[in-house]
Amino acid sequence: MTQLSKPPLSTVSLQVMWNRLISIVEEQAQALIRTAFSTSVREAGDLSAGVYNRAGLMLAQAVTGTPGHVNAMADAVAHFIREIGPANILEGDIYITNDPWMGTGHLHDITVVTPSFHQGRHVGFFACTAHVVDIGGRGFGADANSVYEEGLYIPIMKFADRGKVDQPFVRLVRGNIREPDQVVGDIFALATCNDVGHRRLIGMLDEFALDGLEQVGDFILENSRRATLERIAALPRGEAEGSMLSDGFATPIELRVKVTIGTDEVCVDFAGSSGVDPKGINCPMVYSKAYACYALKCAIAPEIPNNAASLEPFRITAPDNTIVNALHPAPVALRHVIGHLIPDTVYDALDKLLPRTVPAEGAGPLCNFQVSLRPASEASRLAGARRAEVLMFNCGGSGARPTLDGMNTTAFPSGVMTMPIEATEHAGPIIIWRKELRPDSGGAGRFRGGLGQFMEVGAVEGHVFDMSAMFDRVKHPPRGRLGGSGGAATEIRLDDGTAMAGKGRQAVPEGRKVMLSLPGGAGHGPAAERKRSEVLRDLALGYISAKAARTDYGLGDAEIAAVEAGLKRGELPSVGAFSSEVVAGSPEENALDQ
């Protein structure tokens, strides 16, 4: 008896299976974290995982991972089906690509897709993506003039054919990258995590005596689409424009957007944005769409699980060969710098349509850098100095929310975690001499922006290094909302005071350190409306200086002296008492507080 001849499943059973699928893909993601070789995956969670029906529609995504990966990967499986061909999809196959325009936006992300078979019948796909530490070429940075310079291109192809790994392909990869063990290890980890998802899915199908995912897939997509459309229908109709300036590489980049709320869709149009940049900060449409959809979903329907149907009512368009719709062969290695600014640009427009719903601007792009280390001399090499590539993800502060402060050193919109110092130093001969919160970097406001951080980076004695900087917000720091102040700008220099550029590969002399001041999030609402107890708390914790407490918030000298005297006695004011004060807000004000 086939599934089609069985009676329909109950709504309760279908909901249980939906939850089970979400738990399966979360286990899939955790398997990748536990088996990956690269610190960007193991420590920062720069990955995604999902399950798809036979048509390539995403049914569920892992909670762990980044919106840029998972929302871009939502469209990727359809490309795999087209390129491989439905008749050539066989049990035991594993497919792979890092195509920026059919994957997740740049060559450093490898996407692996595995068809899932049950009792000889093709029932769906599992897919996952991870950022690898190296892909050859110029290395991870903005310096390339075309995608051909940025590394090894892997077209959509079979990594394994009916269970047999393509060993010539593995040798080709190993011969073209600087960290072959890490990258090839990550590819096998990607394949393994898909297999974990497949085995859990087969267990679920057997448990519920199902032949496939048709019933539960239709239930997921129909309910998600209906719920999202209901949310959109409840919104006020209208359109508004927003904009933002980015540092760019050599010249500033302008992002422009028009958001239109209709009866059954929300349209985002990036017409008017800057054209393609000569250097590798361009963003393929798949990645721009991913973050535009994420911004809308956070503001409009955050509780609805992410899948093909809940994303479908969001229509994202941009003219060809703009910075947010760069066509091949544009250089795209740092597509995240522009992509991570897209949500705040969308919110600049959405704030005019849905007041007190969206946060103030935050640091936006991850504060990444890659260090290429080498022996300082032949004597150093003989003494044990070695070559190494070390990638580190760090975060500035997020913007203040309508009823809450911004989060310190927290990546929004990417959600990527800061890498621990120990893991970074273990990856190569690098030393992080300093890593601490940056006082006064969060913009003042009724709700304060999240803090950025200070870092000092150097190399182990006997090494010199090049730093590929991937920073923004140097000349255009985060902007406040509704009277809030802007966050602090990014600063980068050597320890002798020499200024460094925010982007590009730059040599660091032997013995020198790089001094980083990472940006803070902007404030929301006038600083004069901030609760006195919260200002005292910030001063006691060192989040703001006495000068900022006085000039930004109007704190009196006696109050400042009382806090300072208490700290000298080792008496930290009761943070719990301050944080327990509840700020009442409207449903719109609280929409993004979760």
TrEMBL record:
Residue ranges constituting the Hydantoinase B/oxoprolinase domain according to the UniProt record: 11-526
GO cellular component, one term: cytosol
InterPro entries referenced in this protein's UniProt entry, alphabetically: Hydantoinase_B (IPR003692), Oxoprolinase-like (IPR045079)
Transmembrane parts of this sequence: none
Coiled-coil region: none
Any one GO molecular function term: 5-oxoprolinase (ATP-hydrolyzing) activity
An example Gene Ontology biological process: glutathione metabolic process
Any matching Pfam family: Hydantoinase_B
Superkingdom of origin: Bacteria
Protein name: N-methylhydantoinase B
Species the sequence originates in: Bosea psychrotolerans
